[in-house]
Every structure is written in C-alpha cells, then in structure tokens.
C-alpha cells in the first residue's frame, strides 16, 4: 500500500516518495547468503525502541490487543458503504445489496489524506480496502455458491474516515464512499489499446501514489472467471482482468483505468513512488511460488494523467546482497519474459512497503516448500534513487519458530515467551522507521494466532518483530495503515472463523459480535494508545 504521507506533504521525503506495503522474498542464492547480513552476534541484553514488548498470541475465539492499547471495530462484512445500501441479511444475500456493502474478505490497500485540511479543522481521509476472495463454505448458507452475489461481495470499498477525539470513525454514507465490484465499468489504456471492460476481479493489494491516485492490483483472474462464466457471459473472456487499476480516490465519479503497460499477471501487491528525476516508479509482486518482483519506470515525469501508459517494465535478479533490474521487451508476457531474462524466482512474493524516509523497499515472502515460514527482505536502491538500475539487499528476518533451524532474528533474538511471525504477507513502513508486518496462514490454525508485528529497520532492535495485535481463531491480518501523525494504526481481520472443517452454520468463532446465528465478519479495526501518542512509541 502507498506510503501514508504520499498525499499529505508530511515526512522528510514526502515530495518524492510514496508507498506503504511490502510483501516479498528472495531467490535461493540470495536467501542462503542473507543470514550473514543480519546484525552480528547475540547481545547481552535486548535494546528496543518504543513501547512494544514480547507477548504470546494464544489461539482463541476473541482477539488479543497489546497492553496499553485499545482497538475499535470500524466496519464489518455487510455494513453499508454507500448511502443506498440495504440492511445486511447474510442468509439471503442479493447481488444488488452486496454491491453496496463491505465485502466478505478485507485487506488494506491505502489511506489517502487530502492535501488541504478541511475548513472545520477535522482530520479526514479516504481508506481503500480490497476484498480478494469470497469462499462459499463460509459466505453462504449451506456452503452453496451464489456466483453473482460473490462477484458483488468482492472488489474494493472506499470509505470516508474522520477523527473523533483520539480515535477515528467511518462516516456512514460519506461523499467519497463507493464500491467497486463485478459490475464496475472500467477503461483500458496503454499498449493493449483503448477500450472498456465491466468489472474488477480478485483485487489483492494496492497503494496510494505520490501523484494523487489509488492503484489496485488484480490477482489471478482464472478462478473467478471459471466461477462466473456460466452465470454471466461477460466473464467468458479473461483479457480484461489481471491488470493494475488506477482511479482518483477523492472523486466518486471517476472511472477506474486498467493500465496495461504495467503488465498482466497474478498481482500480489503494488507500491508506488518517484525516481530522483520525477518519474513514476511502481513495484509489483507476482504472487506465486516461484513468482517475480517487477518494477515499472515511466517514460516521462509523473505530472500527466496517463503517466503509467508508457515506460519500461523490468524484473529483479538477486545475487547475494545485490539486485539488478533487467528490462523486459515491450508487450511481452511479463512472467514468460522474466523467466527468459533470468529473473529470480522468489518464495511467493506478496506484500510491498516503501520507507518514507529513504529509497528502501520491503518485500514480504509468504513462503514456499523450500522455506515454509517465509521471510522479509530489504531492498535499498543505489544512490538513494528508486529509478537506479541496481540495489542492495539484506534479510530483515527469516520467519518461524525461533527454536527452529531456519528462523533468523536480530541481535539478541525474540524475548522469551513471545509470539513469532510465520507466513509474513503484508508490510507497511511508518515515518519512524518501523515496519508493520501482518501474517496469513489462510485459515489454518497453528500453535499461535495470526499477528501484526512491529519491527525496527535500524538500530539495536532491527530484525526483532514484536506483536501488537493477534487475530481471532482462523482470522488473518490484512495489512496496516497509519495516519500521518502516527497516532492511529488501521488493520483488518480477514475471514475469522474460516477454519478447515467449519462452515457458515458452524464457524470456528463468531467474532466480533458473538451472537447466535450471526456469522463471523471480516472487520476494519483502528488501534490507538490509551494515553495517546504514536503507535509503537
């Protein structure tokens, strides 16, 4: 997701940078060399910044919040997004109603803050949340799929937020609130030619750009197309899906544009910033086992409406502690071209996050059969320029049980008894140099709950992830976003209760309401310190 200060002018590098999420990984050669890049040797004592501390994240039906913090549930599956949304009835879902309500699944894509403060002085923002999946086992009574309702439940929600006291609320029926889904009219631009297509499918990530737009990344459209083709002939042709979609988050009438110059593949996430000479830079992950990390560099400066319609797509090749960007032929299939060019196959590259203070990208790798628990890689651009043709790489940490042979954490390791990350899937970097990393086992219940971890990128606490929040049973963490002042952190809980063997009627939890007959609901949360001040200290 895009850097939080991308549209606010805050932060020392806000003029030229902008993104907030990192998922990623590295190829075998790079990872085998990476442990040597960690801070050397155990220290006699652990020195950490901020107010985070080690704590367990037990598997339970409720969630877990760090001491000194509170969490507010802001919007849940089925809550209305647009003013004309009907009341939610999970037992009788209708496509028209679902198209105006918050979706079944939820992952943060970006938070856009107006450049100019409101006349009344109340801080406001537009939050973008994507809805990647709709699993019929837990979304529909009896587990019987309803494809058209599912097409409406997926997509994206744009929500008006405003600050009230120390917390934030979702403005019911706000002016910029809108839903994107299977019926949304989009324009196609770039090398694929001008045209239109109706619908967005399988959005998996997104970011706010420094030139003032929102990017939303479509994942692999094949499962959705197979599911929907019989119900709606529009989905018989998949050429209109699998792209990066761009729109104006502040204009509810803006038509989303699918930017074909960025390539068509199974996107995991995107992150946008500017090169030193003002060109647009968009990083993209190919979210597969053995997927690639791509970078798009625009041909011209990011001052025109269609800046993403012309430029160079390149793939990353990692060798030891170095990364080189290999340009790909224009118009070629990105994945096939990346393989032929010698790009590095990664361990399911997923989330992306950019440091607002310097040209540093974080890449969260979900994991692979070779390295099941995943890892987080740091990519630092040459000459502090995201447009440079090379970069340095370092391992932030290798995830997993610290007692195991593959886990690698920073100097001193994790505090005794603390939870540890497994399958890092999202990452955001705040203005204080701390990464916020969310984990996702896809509903599989392990020895601990899924968690949101804060991890310093510099200093004695580098590479030591400490938990802030734990999800309820079978729920995953759908990213993080912070307000410009850092005093509120937003996250989502994805598909709580969706544990293998459970069902719509008998979920593993009924979080967050715990009412008989009410299914568990993916939820957007706000986390703040009880005494005020920046999240994480």
From TrEMBL:
Q: Which InterPro entries match?
A: PhoX (IPR008557)
Give the Pfam families listed for this entry: PhoX
- Classify the source by domain of life: Bacteria
- So which residues are the signal peptide here? none
**Record region (Disordered):** 1-24
Q: What is this protein called?
A: DUF839 domain-containing protein
């Amino acid at each position: 997701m895009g850097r939080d200060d991308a549209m606010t002018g805050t932060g020392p590098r806000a003029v030229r940078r902008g993104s907030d999420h990192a998922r990623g990984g590295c190829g075998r050669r790079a990872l085998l060399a990476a442990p040597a890049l960690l801070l050397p040797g155990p220290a006699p004592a652990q020195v950490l910044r901020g107010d985070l501390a080690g704590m367990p994240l037990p598997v339970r039906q409720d969630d877990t919040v760090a001491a000194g913090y509170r969490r507010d549930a802001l919007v849940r599956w089925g809550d209305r997004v647009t003013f004309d949304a009907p009341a939610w009835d999970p037992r009788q879902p209708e496509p028209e109603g679902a198209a105006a309500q918050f979706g079944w699944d939820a992952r943060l894509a970006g938070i856009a803050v107006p450049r100019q403060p409101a006349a009344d002085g109340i801080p406001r923002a537009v939050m973008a949340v994507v809805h990647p999946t709709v699993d019929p086992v837990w979304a529909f009574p009896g587990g019987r799929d309803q494809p058209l309702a599912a097409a409406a439940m997926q997509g994206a929600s744009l929500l008006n937020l405003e600050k009230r006291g120390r917390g934030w609320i979702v403005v019911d029926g706000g002016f910029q609130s809108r839903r994107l889904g299977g019926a949304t009219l989009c324009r196609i631009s770039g090398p694929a030619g001008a045209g239109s297509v109706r619908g967005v499918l399988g959005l998996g990530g997104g970011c706010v750009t420094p030139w003032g737009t929102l990017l939303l990344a479509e994942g692999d459209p094949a499962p959705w197309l197979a599911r929907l083709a019989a119900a709606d002939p529009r989905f018989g042709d998949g050429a209109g899906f699998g792209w990066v979609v761009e729109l104006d988050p502040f204009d509810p009438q803006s038509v989303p544009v699918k930017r074909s110059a960025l390539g068509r593949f199974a996107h995991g996430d995107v992150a946008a910033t500017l090169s030193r000479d003002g060109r647009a830079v968009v990083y993209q992950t190919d979210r597969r086992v053995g997927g690639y990390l791509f970078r798009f560099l625009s041909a011209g400066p990011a001052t025109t409406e269609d800046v993403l319609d012309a430029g160079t797509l390149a793939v990353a090749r990692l060798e030891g502690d170095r990364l080189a960007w290999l340009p790909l032929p224009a118009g070629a299939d990105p994945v096939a071209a990346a393989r032929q060019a010698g790009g590095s196959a990664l361990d399911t590259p997923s989330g992306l996050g950019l440091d607002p203070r310097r040209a540093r990208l974080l890449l969260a790798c979900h994991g692979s059969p070779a390295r099941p628990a995943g890892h987080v890689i740091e990519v630092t651009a040459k000459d502090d320029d995201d447009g440079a043709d090379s970069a340095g790489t370092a391992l932030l940490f290798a995830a997993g049980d610290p007692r195991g042979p593959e886990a690698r954490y920073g100097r001193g390791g994790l505090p005794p008894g603390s939870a540890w990350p497994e399958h890092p899937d999202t990452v955001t970097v705040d203005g204080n140099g701390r990464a916020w990393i969310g984990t996702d086992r896809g509903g599989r219940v392990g020895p601990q709950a899924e968690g949101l971890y804060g991890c310093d990128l510099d200093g004695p606490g580098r590479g030591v992830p400490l938990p802030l929040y734990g999800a309820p049973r079978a729920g995953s963490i759908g990213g993080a976003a912070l307000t410009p002042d850092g005093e509120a952190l937003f996250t989502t809980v994805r598909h709580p209760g969706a544990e293998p063997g459970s069902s719509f009627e008998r979920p593993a939890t009924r979080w967050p309401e715990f009412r008989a007959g009410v299914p568990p609901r993916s939820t957007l949360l706000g986390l703040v310190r009880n005494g005020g001040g920046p999240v994480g200290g």
